[in-house]
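User: Some background: our group keeps a shared notebook of sequences we're curious about, and every so often someone picks one and asks for a predicted structure to add to the entry. Today it's my turn. The entry only has the sequence so far, pasted here. Could you supply the structure so I can complete it?
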Amino acid sequence: MTPVTVTLLGSGTSQGVPMMVCDCAVCTSADPRDKRTRSSIYLNDGDEGPDGTQILVDTTPELRLQCIAQRVRHVRAVLFTHGHADHLFGFDDLRRFCELNRARMPVHASPETLEVLRRTYAYAFDPSIVVHGYVRADAVPFPPEGESFRVGVLDVIPLPVTHGRTVTHGFLFRGTGPQAGRKLFAYIPDCKTLPDATKAALRDVERLVIDGLRDEEHPTHMTIAEAIAAGREVGAGETILTHLTHHKSHADREAGLPPGVHVAYDGMRFTLGEPLKQSS
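Assistant: Of course. Here's the predicted structure to add to the notebook entry:
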């Protein structure tokens, strides 16, 4: 299996950091790690051919800027965690990748999230509309719970999680070929709790990127302590906290974290199956 690099395009909560109309110490921080766009990731194996592994998870309102900043040049498939605005509302910017691919974009999501997308971007799913430069999408519902689908060199398993009343999923990415079945990475940006079946699927995952909103309790998101506990419970090799607010700076979040727990930042990169290289 060719090496796959994961880039965190965004690591912020629904309002981003800095937040509008806020002059707090974090929102005015000079630390670039305190500039957080809405949460999204990009997986890339470097194969620019039609069978390459270039996966985008969620389309944030800053998608165009994220792709420019991180030099995202190819997207072959898009996965959606759920139907909230901060994870959907850059969808129209997929038009550039449809144009480059000369093909419709496979969009993998739950039926509930696909319905939100169809209501909001009806033109993208209408096969009768064929206009150069428009986003054109093929809706691909998730397989039955617990089953996987293949994208490039990765097996992808959607994992149900609880996030208020909204049907929400994370994703487990497993290796193929010589690394078949290896639980390389899981991404769960929005959740409050993990159902038992999801915990079982995550058991011994090598790297877990998970919702760690803030220290204070929240009804639909994990606190930092809850995220750390979830990583321990499933036996994650490493846990990375994402979907972060302006309540605490990156440096303050990092201070005192237990071994194997890290704080996400925009532009963070790692290669699946390899040790995490820390920024300074």
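Suggested note for the entry: The CA atoms of residues 217 and 223 lie 6 Å apart. DSSP finds eight helices and 14 strands in the chain.
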